[in-house]
TrEMBL record:
Domain Magnesium chelatase ChlI-like catalytic span(s) in chain numbering: 50-113
PANTHER family: COMPETENCE PROTEIN COMM, MAGNESIUM-CHELATASE SUBUNIT CHLI
Record-given protein name: Magnesium chelatase ChlI-like catalytic domain-containing protein
GO molecular function: ATP binding
């Protein structure tokens, strides 16, 4: 179930459970969880989008650079068609790759929403 998250730990094999009850049964010796091959850790591809492709929007581009460099939050406000989504789509290409610890923390938060 959480094979992608297990890949963050760095083990070649992992046991996966559908529920906490299955984990408890495994720990009590009442049930055996199967071993699975852990998938290789996924790397995020850069989309090749560049801030230089955006004409104008100097303040928005500067805000993106500052937010990415300083790990700050960013909120774009404005009417439809002013470039908010276009600017926001460039942010992921400015950010550095996550460390293993950051990836684990992000995966933990993401798993709570599933």
């Amino acid at each position: 179930v959480n094979g992608d998250q297990a890949a963050l730990v760095g083990k070649e094999q992992h046991k996966s459970a559908q529920s906490l009850l299955e984990v408890c049964a495994e720990l009590c010796g009442q049930h055996r969880l199967n071993l699975y091959q852990t998938p290789k850790r996924k790397t995020v591809e850069k989309h090749g989008r560049d801030l230089q492709d955006i004409i104008g929007q100097q303040q928005g581009k500067r805000a993106l650079e500052i937010a990415a460099a300083g790990n700050h939050n960013l909120l774009f406000l404005g009417p439809p068609g002013t470039g908010k989504t276009m600017l926001a789509s460039r942010l992921c290409d400015l950010l550095p790759e996550m460390s293993d610890e950051e990836a684990m923390e992000t995966a933990s938060v993401a798993s709570l929403t599933q």
